[in-house]
Amino acid sequence: MTNPNTILTAWIEGVGLLGPGLPDWPTAQGVLTGDAAYVPSPITAPPPQGLPPAERRRAGVSVKVALAVAQEAIAMGQLDARQLSTVFASSGADGDNCNAICAVLASEDRHISPTRFHNSVHNAPAGYWGIASGAMAPATVLCVYDSCFSAGLLEALTQVTVEGSTALLIAYDSPYPEPLNAKRPLPSAMGIALALTSQKSAQSMAQIQVSLTDTEPDVLADPGLDALRLAIPAARGLPLLQALARKQAREVVLDYLEPLRLNVAIEPCR
Asked: Do strands 190-197 and 250-255 pair parallel, antiparallel, or not at all (unpaired)?
């Protein structure tokens, strides 16, 4: 287990965001600072850039969301995607394919489509990212149920701290159709990406320092945003994004594995 006194430090180079009412990072900043009202609306996941036509057609919502936020963070940080290690964190990955495979297995015809199968595995977005970006660096894929954002953040920061490298965190989720939705309700797909580096650069947005705590997690003042935070595991990172949007030195506490939480200190660069 991580030493409770250990502090992991990095620099945030870029942010990617796609969620209901939060179509991208520039739009979301006004909402997170309170300058614009939060209005929930369905997301539109763009076609994955960089994929060949066949793979682009096969990509599900989770892949589209993960690649969209990853590419936004990379572009903002002016980084070379081919050189970045990646951490993909999701509570369940592709709900549509999971449901479709379960339906086939429950039927008399149990022949599963190979395309359906290879898109159902938890590391599918990481594979598609490698194809789209040409990245040959290691990819880590995590599934930590409701704690996926914080677990992914810890993993990415550990890689940056230990290896002195740049890492890209991609936390994402997508909903299940019925009847699985009744047991695991997620109102929408959503993704957050953070590009993290060990050295400050001209593009650095803020320094981030993370340690373990048992303090209660932060609650967002806007009821709609806080409902989103609680409803989608990837959205547990919204308090961190709000601190970035406000460009003020502050600390926020994020949900993690009970009874632990993450204390996140943000020190803006600009």
From this structure: unpaired
8 A C-beta contact, residue 137 and residue 148: no
DSSP, collapsed to helix, strand or coil, labels residue 83 as: helix
Residue 207, helix vs strand vs coil: strand
Check residue 146 and report its DSSP letter: G
- Residue pair 162/168 in contact (Cβ under 8 Å)? The answer is no
Check residue 126 and report its DSSP letter.
H
pLDDT in tens, 199-230: 999 999 999 999 999 999 999 999 999 999 99
Separation between Cα atoms, residue 215 and residue 255, nearest integer Å: 10
Taking alpha carbons only, the member of 261, 83, 96, 42 closest to residue 165 is: 83
Q: Is the pLDDT of residue 1 over 60?
A: no
Residue with tokens 């979301």: 28
pTM of the shown model: 0.93
Please give the DSSP secondary-structure letter assigned to residue 19.
B
The answer to whether residue 182 sits within a structural domain is: yes
CB 242 within 8 A of CB 252: yes
Domain count within the chain: 1
CATH of residue 171's domain is 3.40.47.10
| Token pair listed for 108 | 């008399």
Locate the DSSP E strands across the chain.
Answer: 8-18, 85-89, 139-142, 166-173, 190-197, 206-213, 250-255, 261-268
Tokens read off for 156:
């990415």
pLDDT in tens, 97-146: 888 888 888 888 878 777 777 777 888 888 889 999 998 899 999 999 99
Domain that holds residue 25: 12-203
